[in-house]
Design goal:
The chain is mainly beta. The strands form three sheets. It has a 26-stranded antiparallel β-barrel. Strands 1, 4, 5, 6, 7, 8, 9, 10, 12, 13, 14, 15 and 16 form a 13-stranded antiparallel β-sheet that branches. A three-stranded antiparallel β-sheet has the order 2-3-11.
């Protein structure tokens, strides 16, 4: 007769089992034979594990629960059937044992056999037979010996063994001749459609990274801490093993998220390739203090190099990465990056130091010899800067974003390098605004219901390498204070607003340039009033403003000394200008068919009139003002200049029309197109001339300020499909019958594995060359940029970028890479050349870099360089593609 026995082993007196226990005690005649069998268990367990047959890959996969499936990169997943979670359904202080049949003893050893199951606190152990032992004196349950097809299960973990022992009081476990699997870096589970009462837990399909291996012995003395002796470890699918670590001792601590291995040997396809006396590796995505894998690499600027980063997990919201590096052409370098995250702020602080740069010392000697006889004052000044530069190369950058409360915030963006050649040689973690210019800025912001305010300290570090095209120094804002107010009256419908700006400007002369430059204060206030009228099909917004500007100036020479020469510029120029404009538009729509799709087409004409009287502004210096590039949006602004140092005279009307095609069902905008032009009623007289530096006067410039109409501006946005997008902006000079400006962008983005971006830019006279006459085609900026990431197969993918300057006849960036990324390992190759500068001899200089990296997922990266950083910083559309290890 076969029956199922179930007993809570930690319950020593229970009424519900009283009669059952009395009945079972009658079977004491079996006890002596049971004890004898139990005492011999250790020897029989050892015999069971000797001469075990070698399992095939398919047999191992079957025992681990591997289910082939070609829908994911691993080619399958691990299946976990549901089991009763005693942690939720049973008392925590009990261990339950069930079996098809058994012999129970009140005072000695009990035996269970046939589907024996031990359940306790979310863990389940099954075996063919179990011997349950009591302590001889106290007769309390002591341990259980398990024989035959032992299976230990926890959610996402599995251990299979020939035999083993479980101590009931300490919960320690020892299993022999084992095969194990454990999930790392998370799992994805799926609930059964209708779980039964016997399936309290959910069945799971473990599709993310999991580790498995074999071991002679498995021990568990703490919850979620697994020890293996004479063990292997791999995250590859059991049917496609590529790499494996073999070790005398492996410990997986899921409480800390780390694994360790002693005497570890790395095998690739069964061939030993590396040895670690001690290996520490992650088994989840928690941050841990320790050395990261070394990053060797090579570049034409630094030569072969080796970086050895050390990660310091200071706190849950602070960390620091210290990276010593050896650059074969330069020497020893120390890089550091500190990151922080608080309730109100986040940011990073980084610095780099390279003492006694050998290559930089050679550059100083070479340039001094080549330019010693130069009579060019700019060259001599740059040469003096080079001679005074320290061979200790250094850089620092600080990024901070703080939100004090819903109204107040601050931002810091500061970068600094120790010499003019640092960006040319390194270009790491620094924020260039324009070539050879680093931003140094701190802002304090306030936003309220009606008022906004910000204070700013802003400067630029401009670099002046001797062998590159010079860049002009920029003005510093020390400080800039802006206060804006906007109030819409509910009673009158009037909108009252004001813009106030106070800025103090400072500047340093360019090397070798001995001219007087103005510095000083600018106070600007611009109050205004408007009466907006909005209806579903029409809007009219008349507006009147008054621009009031006052300057307090000084003239300083190259040495920073004030120039008090008679006849110098006025020290307090001022300006008062009324500004009147009316913006109006209509809205029409209709239902149309577009390639058999129901669409709503809109027609949105817009008319914008501007009047600004002429004021002579030649005595006002140019601190922060340039001429705006004409675009479709620029048609509907009152000032053709950026900044506040010039407000252009205007008596003009802008006319434009926009049409859109919108899908009726989804509301998705299929097409947006616009075209417009400005009609001038008088010539424009205000220019950027300044009589402090040149003899100038406001006069209409032929072909620029005397035409009756502006160039025609058009724009097009066409979402061909959910993946393909085309955008174009064009400026057509109808008088000269030629293009002034054109940009075209075509992009494809199906997912992060399939992206293509192509752009073309053309600007007439947008890239003037020093050795080309005015009007030459070589001065017209003409540039293309092609980048892509593409998955060639399930595991193979390619990445590339090519940026070409057609007017200068050279490429700016050339990057190409290939990646093999399988379930458990990846190899990444990236190489490229980056344009660095144009020398005084009109030759082009490039920096060549090469990266090769191996990634053993679940163990770490081994190889050269950092391909993911190169790709992510170069191809923005492909961010976070390369470098995904799990």
């Amino acid at each position: 007769m076969i029956c199922k026995w179930e007993c809570p082993l930690n319950m020593y007196s229970s009424r519900q089992f009283k009669f059952i226990l009395i009945f079972i005690s009658i079977l004491g005649c079996w006890v002596s034979s049971v004890n004898a069998a139990g005492e011999a268990l250790n020897q029989s367990c050892i015999l069971l594990t000797q001469d075990s047959p070698t399992l095939t890959e398919s047999a191992i996969a079957d025992r681990l629960g591997w289910v082939p499936n070609n829908t994911n990169r691993c080619g399958g997943y691990y299946y976990e059937p549901a089991f009763i979670d005693t942690h939720q359904t049973l008392k925590k202080d009990l261990i339950y044992v069930t079996g098809d049949q058994g012999v129970f003893s009140m005072h000695s050893t009990s035996v269970y056999q046939g589907n024996v199951t031990l359940s306790e606190n979310g863990q389940q152990i099954k075996a063919n037979k179990a011997y349950v032992y009591r302590e001889p004196v106290t007769e309390k349950y002591n341990y259980v010996d398990l024989i035959g097809n032992v299976i230990l299960r926890e959610p996402n973990d599995l251990v299979r063994a020939k035999c083993g022992r479980v101590y009931l009081q300490t919960k320690n476990k020892s299993l022999y001749d084992i095969l194990y699997r454990t999930a790392v870096y998370g799992v994805l589970s799926r609930k059964p459609a209708k779980p039964s009462n016997d399936q309290i837990t959910e069945e799971r399909e473990v599709v993310q990274l999991s580790a498995w291996g074999k071991a002679r012995l498995f021990k568990q003395e703490q919850p979620k801490v697994y020890e293996f002796q004479s063990a292997t470890y791999s995250t590859c699918p059991p049917t496609h093993g590529v790499w494996q670590v073999r070790s005398s001792d492996i410990l997986l601590n899921k409480n800390t998220g780390r694994g360790t291995a002693k005497n570890a040997r790395l095998y690739l396809k069964g061939i030993p390739v590396f040895y670690w006396p001690y290996l520490n590796f992650p088994i989840d995505d928690r941050r841990q203090t320790g050395f990261l894998f070394p990053r060797p690499g090579t570049s034409s600027s630094n030569g072969p190099y080796l970086q050895t980063p050390f990660y310091w997990n200071l706190a849950p919201n602070y960390d620091d990465t210290i990276t010593p590096a050896f650059l074969s052409k330069r020497g020893l370098q120390l890089n550091n990056l500190f990151r922080y995250l608080t309730k109100t702020s986040h940011g990073e602080i980084g610095f780099s130091v390279l003492p006694d740069d050998q290559k930089f010392e050679n550059l100083k000697t070479t340039d001094e010899e080549e330019n010693a006889n130069s009579t060019n004052p700019v060259t001599q000044s740059e040469l003096n800067r080079l001679e005074n530069s320290s061979t200790t190369r250094k850089a620092i950058h600080v990024i901070d974003d703080t939100r004090f409360n819903e109204h107040w915030s601050s931002d810091i963006n500061f970068s600094y390098v120790g010499d003019d050649y640092y960006l040319k040689d390194f270009r790491n973690n620094l924020y260039e605004v324009t070539p050879n210019q680093l931003l140094q800025e701190a802002d304090l912001n306030y936003k309220g219901e009606y008022w906004q305010m910000f204070g700013r300290l802003q400067g630029y570090q401009t670099l002046h390498p001797i062998d590159e095209t010079p860049y002009n120094n920029q003005y510093f804002r020390l400080p800039q204070l802006v206060l804006e107010g906007d109030y819409l009256s509910d009673k009158t419908g009037l909108d009252y607003f004001i813009y106030n700006d106070f800025t103090h400007f400072e500047i340093h002369n360019n090397p070798g340039v001995d001219i007087d430059q103005p510095i000083g204060n600018r106070a600007h206030s611009q109050p205004g009033i408007s009466w907006p009228y909005y209806r579903p099909s029409i809007y009219i917004v008349p507006r009147l403003q008054m621009a009031l500007t006052q300057y307090s100036l000084q003239q300083v020479n190259a040495d920073g000394v004030e120039d008090n020469t008679p006849g110098a510029n006025p020290t307090n120029p001022q300006r008062a200008l009324p500004i009147f404009d009316i913006n109006s538009g209509l809205y029409f729509d209709r239902n149309v068919k577009f390639f058999s799709h129901s669409m709503r087409q809109t027609l949105e004409p817009e008319v914008y009139y501007t009047y600004v009287p002429y004021r002579n502004q030649n005595d006002i210096p140019i601190f922060d003002t340039t001429t705006n590039t004409l675009t479709y949006d620029q048609l509907f602004t009152y000032n053709r200049f950026s900044g506040l140092d010039r407000i252009g005279d205007a008596n003009q009307i802008s006319v434009g029309v926009t049409t859109r095609f919108i899908d009726d069902e989804s509301g998705y905008e299929k097409i947006r197109a616009g075209i417009g032009q400005i009609y001038y009623f008088q010539n424009r007289r205000v220019t950027l001339c300044y009589n402090g530096t040149v003899d100038c006067d406001d006069q209409p410039l032929p072909d620029e300020n005397t035409e009756d109409t502006s160039p025609i501006s058009g724009m097009l946005l066409y979402n061909l499909t959910p993946y393909w997008t085309v955008r174009a902006d064009t400026i057509w000079n109808s008088i000269q019958r030629e293009l002034d400006n054109q940009t075209l962008t075509v992009s494809y983005a199906r997912d992060y594995l399939h992206m293509i971006n192509f752009s073309y830019s053309y600007v007439r006279d947008g890239d003037p060359q020093f050795d080309e006459p005015e009007g030459s085609d070589a001065n017209n900026l003409s540039q293309t940029d092609l980048s892509f990431t593409w998955s060639l197969t399930r595991d193979w993918s390619a990445v590339g970028r090519w940026t070409q300057s057609w007017n200068q006849g050279h490429f700016q960036n050339l990057l190409y890479g290939l990646q093999y990324d399988s379930c458990c390992w990846a190899v990444r190759f990236v190489a490229g050349r980056v344009y660095t500068n144009q020398t005084v001899n009109n030759t082009y200089a490039y920096n060549t870099e090469f990266y090769l990296q191996f990634a053993l997922k679940g163990l770490g990266n081994i190889g050269t360089g950092n391909p993911s950083q190169v790709v992510n910083s170069t191809i923005l559309a492909n961010k976070n593609y390369f470098g995904q290890d799990y």
